[in-house]
């Protein structure tokens, strides 16, 4: 399987071998990369995320999922192709209400039929899966 030859699978296997995953406190800030402080925080997703559904693609160990579920009371699903990463995420943050994790391809979640109560978002809306683009309508020159 492709996921088992990816660098992220190797990374997760090394982290799991080094120390077993254990419950962690949700991070105080949402990060867009492995380098702290790069890009905006969760405020870019809107002021009121309480009860809203958020999908993070490529969630890795689940830090952003945990942050949004704990600090914003959003209902967040983190998806990762690498099952070991999902297992780590569940071990770290599975206790947080509103945080769920699934192993699989992002397309399966993006193609899932919408529930009647789910509002669709415009294609130009930012997602928690990648940093916002300067071409986004949210970012314009003054």
TrEMBL record:
Keywords noted in UniProt: Methyltransferase, Transferase
Keyword Protease part of the UniProt annotation: no
Transmembrane portions of the chain: none
Annotated spans, Disordered: 111-142
Gene Ontology molecular functions: methyltransferase activity
Presence of the UniProt keyword Transferase in the record: yes
Low complexity bias locations: 112-142
Name listed for the protein in its UniProt record: SAM-dependent methyltransferase
Annotated organism of origin: Streptomyces clavifer
Source lineage: Bacteria, Bacillati, Actinomycetota, Actinomycetes, Kitasatosporales
């Amino acid at each position: 399987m492709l996921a088992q030859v990816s660098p992220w699978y190797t990374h997760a296997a090394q982290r799991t071998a080094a120390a077993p995953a254990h419950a962690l406190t949700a991070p105080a800030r949402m990060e867009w990369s492995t380098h702290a402080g790069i890009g905006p925080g969760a405020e870019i997703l809107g002021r009121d995320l309480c009860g809203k559904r958020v999908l993070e693609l490529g969630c890795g160990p689940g830090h952003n999922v945990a942050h949004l579920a704990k600090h914003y009371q959003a209902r967040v699903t983190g998806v990762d192709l690498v099952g070991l990463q999902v297992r780590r995420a569940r071990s770290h943050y599975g206790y947080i209400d509103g945080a769920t994790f699934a192993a699989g391809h992002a397309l399966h979640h993006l193609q899932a039929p919408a529930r009647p109560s789910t509002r669709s978002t415009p294609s130009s809306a930012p997602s928690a899966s990648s940093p916002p683009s300067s071409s986004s309508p949210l970012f314009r020159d003054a």
